[in-house]
Amino acid sequence: MKVPGEMKKTKLLIANFIENSLIGELLRRDYEIATVNTRISGRLPSRLAIEKFDLVYFAKFHPPIWDDIDVLLHKTKTPVIYAYHAPSSRIFNPYRARSYVRTIISSIKLVYIKIAKPVVALHALSTSEYNKLKSFGLRCYYIPLGVNTKLFNQGLKSNRFTVLFDGPQYAKGADMLIKIVPKILKKAPDLKFRLTGRGVQSQYFASLKSSFANNIEVYTWLPRDEFAKLLSTSHVLLFPSRHETFGLVVLEALSSGMPVVCYDIPGAPKDIVKKRGIGVTANSFNIDKIVNGILGYYEMWKNEPEGFKRLSIECRNVALKYDWSIIAGLFDNMFREVLRQEGLS
Question: Which domains does the chain show, CATH number per domain?
Answer without folding.
Answer: 10-146+323-341 (3.40.50.2000), 162-320 (3.40.50.2000)
